[in-house]
Structure formats: C-alpha cells, structure tokens
Amino acid sequence: MIALGCDHGGYELMQEVIAYLDEKGLEYKNFGCGSTDAVDYPIYAKKVAKAILSKECEKGILICGTGIGISITANRFKGIRAALCSDCFSAEATRQHNDANILAMGGRVVGPGLAVKIVDTFLNTEFSNAERHMNRVKAIDEE
Ligand code: RB5
Q1: Does the reported pTM lie above 0.90?
Q2: What does DSSP assign to residue 90?
Q3: Which residue has the least CA distance to atom 8 on ligand 1?
Q4: Mind telling me the catalytic residues?
Q5: Residue 43 main-chain phi, psi, to 5 deg
Q6: pLDDT tens digits for 60-107?
Q7: How far is the CA of 64 from the centre of ligand 1 (A)?
Q8: Of 95, 115, 64, nearest to 72 (Cα)?
Q9: What is the CATH number of the domain that holds 112?
Q10: Domain, as residue range, for 30
C-alpha cells in the first residue's frame, strides 16, 4: 500500500501520479488534499509519515509546490527517509543507498512525464543489501 499526500501546489501532479498507479493496478491510500484550494503541507506530510510508521503503508509519495516543505516535515519523524527527487538517477540511488520510504517531488518543478518515470523508478528499485548501506541507514536514527 502506498500512502499519498499533497498540498495545493502538488495537487495537479498528484492526479497524474494517481492515474499512473491506477494504470499499473497499484494500491494506494490517498490522504489528500482534495483540490487546488490553499492548504498547509505539514498536515499531509504528517499523515503519510504516520501511515508508514504504523505500517499501514510501506511507502509514500508526497508532493507540494517545491517538494521541500513537505519532505522537511516528513523527515522530522524518526524512521522516515523522505527523498526529494527531480530525476530518475536520484530516485534509483535513494532506494538503493538510503532505503528511502517516501518519494517527495515538486509539482511546480517536474512535469508529469518525468514525474511518472521518477515514481516508477522509485517503486521498482530495491534497497541494496550491502552492509555499508545498511549500517549508514541505521546510523541515521542514532543519537
Ligand atoms: C505553497 O505555496 C508552497 O509554499 C508549498 O507547496 C511548498 O512549495 C512548500 O515548500
């Protein structure tokens, strides 16, 4: 199950992402928002982060205007690794190296065609089991 969250700046791009997930038959839970009316991105970042930490969802996709505010908020939660990506190389690398559990994108940054490829890359790339990467990811949450 994939948790989805966006603000008004990410709403339109999220509709493209949803169309892609529907086409692929992938299950998701949409935590909103539900239109281009102005809302506060932390609300949706927190809902998606909590859905992942509770194990209701395995991964998440967050979109705001830049992807910055929504990823900063999600990354306040221990155990959340939200990666802001505007290219497929980063989306692949952050799954392989960081075991990122949330993909963040900017609805005012990437176009729909690229965004869908980034989503596809993120969802279809496994975490590398190399010990160095596992140790580094573990170290993220250590004091
Ligand atoms: C909303 O105008 C915008 O600030 C928000 O979508 C996001 O870009 C914040 O980081």
Answers
A1: yes
A2: H
A3: 65
A4: 64, 97
A5: -55, -45
A6: 999 999 999 999 999 999 999 999 999 999 999 999 999 999 999 999
A7: 6
A8: 64
A9: 3.40.1400.10
A10: 2-141
